[in-house]
């Protein structure tokens, strides 16, 4: 893959701003906890109130740095520890 953690985050934020607006984007506490491009997974942290917005924004990202991608959330959890155990 030809993109970085920074370009992934930029694409996610662009999707949030474009489809949900700045007002909603200000509510989101988005953190990229882990990104493994070799195994093609990442762990994103957000507030529980904005989980559905993040899931929608991820599914609306179509490309990163000109590379066509499909970002599909596999699992959600209340804690980072239980998500890391699942990987």
Number of helices: 3
Q: Name the average pLDDT.
A: 90
How would you sum up the major sheet? Answer: 2 strands, antiparallel
**What structural category do the secondary elements indicate?**
alpha+beta
**What topology, given as strand order, has the largest sheet?**
1-2
Write down the CATH class.
Answer: Alpha Beta
Fourth-level CATH superfamily: Ribonuclease P, Pop5 subunit
How would you portray this structure in words?
By secondary structure, the chain is an alpha+beta fold. The chain has one domain (5-86): Ribonuclease P, Pop5 subunit (Alpha-Beta Plaits). Helices cover 44% and strands 17% of the residues. The chain is built from three helices and four strands, in the order H-E-E-H-E-E-H. The strands form two sheets. A two-stranded antiparallel ribbon has the order 1-2. The protein has a two-stranded antiparallel sheet with strand order 3-4. The relative contact order is 0.19.
Fold blueprint:
Layout (H helix, E strand, L loop, with lengths): L4 H21 L5 E6 L4 E5 L5 H10 L2 E2 L2 E2 L11 H7 L1
Helix pairs in contact: 1-2
Key features of this structure:
single chain, alpha+beta, Alpha-Beta Plaits, two-stranded antiparallel sheet
């Amino acid at each position: 893959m030809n993109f970085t953690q920074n370009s992934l985050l930029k694409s996610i934020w662009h999707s949030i701003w474009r489809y949900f607006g700045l007002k909603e984007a200000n509510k989101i506490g988005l953190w990229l906890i882990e990104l493994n491009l070799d195994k093609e997974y990442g762990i994103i942290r957000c507030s529980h109130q904005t989980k559905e917005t993040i899931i929608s924004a991820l599914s609306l990202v179509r490309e990163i740095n000109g590379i066509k991608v499909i970002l599909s959330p596999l699992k959600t959890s209340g804690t980072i520890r239980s998500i890391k155990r699942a990987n």
